[in-house]
Amino acid sequence: xxxxxxxxxxxxxxxxxxxxxxxxxxxxxxxxKQITVILGRSGCGKTTLLRLTGGLEAADxxxxxxxxxxxxxxVFQEPRLMPWLTVRQNILFGLRGRxxxxxxxxxxxxxxxxxLEGFETAYPSQLSGGMQQRNALARALAYRPSFIMMDEPxxxxxxxxxxxxxxxxxxxxxxxxxxxxxxxxxxDEALLLGNRIVVLEKGKVKREYVPGEHGEERxxxxxxxxxxxxxxxxxxxxxxxx
Length: 242
Known about the structure:
This protein is α/β, with parallel strands linked by helices. It is about 35% helix and about 25% strand. The chain contains 7 helices and 9 strands, in the order E-E-E-H-E-E-H-H-H-E-H-E-H-E-E-H. Strands 5-6-7-3-8-9 form a 6-stranded mixed sheet, sandwiched between helices. The longest helix is centred in the C-terminal third of the chain and has 19 residues, at about 225-240. It is globular. The two termini are about 35 Å apart. The relative contact order is 0.18.
């Protein structure tokens, strides 16, 4: 198994002295060097699954198995950049000693990869929202992770910037052969980005879709994607009635 294998993963939280189950037995295989999208209604457990898989929280029970040694990096909805650091300094932030020295030279290449050349010495307040998210993605890439965990990273952006960032992510993923686990509530975004789409319902995997490999830019008005979107909408509507 290359990537991540999740078996019978369960997680609950205590809310007002009562236990609320969020994940109720997730079974999932996440391949490497692809974009796997987690899709579902609000409260279905998408972010919880991401945080458990990335090691930010511990599961109540179940297993998460990586293929050998692994490093995970996160990109959140908010860029979470250090406002007193420049673009380049934010990219290297969190790396230590030898790792910082070794990746220092690579930072310039990462800056070119995410399209921030010419802004190396700019501060977050001098960047647009899209550029700040590019900086956050560059920081994740500098860590050389085996998986990048992305929690609705473009949700706060305007439509046009979001569309641009989606194209940029596909380009970076292809260039770097990244392994990405991507959470979204947008069906269109899932169809544009995902090699695989995993629909969550009531804390479990309801269904998986395989839109295909990324070759030419996907046209969501093609009959195949229209059919896929209708199937996914039907799944989510059924979950809402349950």
